Structures are given as C-alpha cells and as structure tokens.
Amino acid sequence: MAHIPFLDLRASYVALQADIDAAVERVLASGWYIQGPELAQFEQAFAAYCGADHCVGVASGLDALILSLRALDLKQGDEVIVPSHTFIATWLAVSAVGAVPIPVEPNPNSYNLDPDLIEAAVTPNTRAIIAVHLYGQPADLDPILTIAKKHNLAVVEDAAQAHGAEYKSRRIGAHGDIVCWSFYPGKNLGAMGDGGAITSNRADLAERVRSLGNYGSKKKYVNDEQGTNSRLDPLQAAVLAVKLKHLDAWTERRREIAGRYTHELRGVVTPHVPNWANPVWHLYVIRHPKRDDLMQQLADEGIQTLVHYPIAPHCQEAYRDLSYAKGDFPIAETLANDMLSLPIGPQMSDDHQTQVIETVNRLVDAL
C-alpha cells in the first residue's frame, strides 16, 4: 500500500522544473537581488489576477497583516475583531501593533467569521475587522462590510489560504480595505521559502505598506517613519510568476478532488459551501468525534493527515494575558477537537485519492 503524503511539494516543483530553474537562473544572472523588475512584474501580474489596483510584496503573510494594520494606524489599546477559529498569525498581527484581538465565533457550518455575531463585539475602541478566508473558502463579506461601514471600521482580509477564491463571482483581492496574502511553500500559490503580499484598491494603503516594509522610506536614506525590513525577494517573485500561470489549473484539480471527497466519503462531516462561494480548497477538512483515533489509524495505514488547528488561539499560552478560559468560545474549541485535514493537492493522483476515501470509510465504519 502506497504512502500518501499530506502534500507533495516536490511534485509541484518537478512539474515546472524547467521554467522554475530558468527563472531562478535569470535572477541570479541579473545581479539584482532586492526589489527591481522581477518583483515589479510579479506585483503587477498578481494584482491583475486578484482584480486589485495595487500589490506590494512583503516577507511573509504575518508581515502582510502587521504592515496592513500599521498602515491603518492601529495603535495601543485599539480593538480588532478576529475569528476565534483561525491560525494564530491573525491574532499575532493584532498584538504586534499593540492592539487587542477580540474573538468572535465562526459560523459552525462555514467555519468562517459569523457576521451575525460581530456587532455584539463592537465597542468604542473597535477599529477594524479581520475577515479570514479559512481553508480557501471566502468569508461572507457583504454583511461584514456593511457592519464595518456602519461603525466606521476598516476591513482587513486574511487571504493566506484563498488564492483565486471567489465571493459572489468576484475574486478575493480588493473587497475590503486591504487583503493580506501568504506565499508560504504549502499554500496554493507557494514560494520556495517565506513570502507574502498585500493587494488593495487604496493607493494610500499600498504606498504606506511599501514604505513601512522598506524601513519607513520612500526615498533612499530618507525615513519618514520607523519602518521595518519586509520585502519579497526577486528570486521568490520570479518563482511565483511562473507558478501563477498554472494556478487556475491547479485550483480546478483541487476542486475535482474536493468534489469527489464530498460525494464519496461517509460517516464524517464534510465541508459546507454556500451558493455564493467558490472555494479553492487549500485544505479539505472533515469532522469526526473520534478525530484523534481516526488520524492515528490513517497514519498506521500510510496516510498522512494534519489538524488545522489543534488549539484555539484563546487557549494558547501565548494569550494567557487575555484571561480567557476553556468554554469561552465553544465552537472554536469543538472545531479544534474534531477537525481533520485530508491529503489534497494538484498533483494528487486518482489512485491515491481512492485509497484515502476507501480507508477513511472503512475505518469510520469500525470506530
């Protein structure tokens, strides 16, 4: 029986090896290793892909979030509404600018921020909402944007897992004030190392993020504010430009795999997709009350699965200072206890998927 990895990153490189190697060699031969034309070309291409006016490359997805919040002038004591169920980077960015993350529970069906619960969390100190497009499925943006407008709040989108996802037939990229992206190698559009970007239709925010990520400088050795060093390397930009041309085809393959999982799996809770969403299936997440047993038994049979995420942010030691306790956000805690991510990726074979489906169904029947 074949070993099935959760995601085969090497396979995605091998599929494009000639083009990626040529891009890397071109950058190495150019002598231009910071900023420059390779980065500018990728930023233009990715902005166009996302339907946004502006794109700025940065060093990571976390930096994209932090710099976006700084560009919006978030400061000590401000409050930012965040999902209670998300990767902790969403919270860490808020903390990094001195603001306070205010958790709001997800919709139990979509796993994304529940718009119906947001207004109850708004206070005079609230300055922004971070909407996460978790697992590659868009959050319900229209009601979030309506609430934000009513209360004069900024909307930051965490699209680290949502490259190419569509909300009401429009790609994620410029619905809110600013959208944050990760190009971590395992993402649907992944670099050969860390990388990130922001997209936006607001020129002021894009310009500010670019300056903040370049030591607070728009002109060499002239520093308008205290910035940092957070730039997307031309080497990574060149690799991403190659991969971007294949992203739609990869996404369609992910959708085929997800559709088959949903149709053929039994005895587990499969993802719910609202009729206005067109996910890109960064992750295919099932739920089962005996998640840990199922995960171990799948591993015993050579199938690698992962948990996204095993500890809700409010239960992490890193956020002990917020004085939350177990039970404060029961939906997030339940999801942390019963979710399991199955192997998925554009290079996954039909035979491997058949093995996963048959094994899950057989094991679940016996649990």
Concise summary:
The protein is 38% helix and 15% strand.
Q: Can you put this structure into words, describing what you see?
A:
This protein is of the alpha/beta class and about 375 residues long. The chain has 2 domains: about 10-105 and about 110-245, Aspartate Aminotransferase, domain 2 (3-Layer(aba) Sandwich); about 245-365, Aspartate Aminotransferase, domain 1 (Alpha-Beta Complex). Helix content is about 40%, strand content about 15%. The protein contains 12 helices and 14 strands. It has helices at about 10-15, 15-30, 35-50, 60-70, 90-95, 140-150, 205-210, 235-245, 245-265, 290-300, 330-340, 350-365; strands at about 55-60, 80-85, 100-105, 125-130, 155-160, 165, 170, 180, 195-200, 215-220, 220-225, 275-280, 285, 340. The strands form 4 sheets. Strands 1-9-8-5-4-2-3 form a 7-stranded mixed sheet, with helices on both faces. Helix 2 (about 15-30) runs antiparallel to helix 8 and helix 4 (about 60-70) packs parallel to helix 5. The longest helix is centred in the C-terminal third of the chain and has 18 residues, at about 245-265. The two termini are about 20 Å apart. About 50% of the residues are buried. Pfam families: DegT_DnrJ_EryC1. GO terms for molecular function: pyridoxal phosphate binding; transaminase activity. It comes from Tritonibacter mobilis F1926. This is Erythromycin biosynthesis sensory transduction protein eryC1. Belongs to the DegT/DnrJ/EryC1 family.
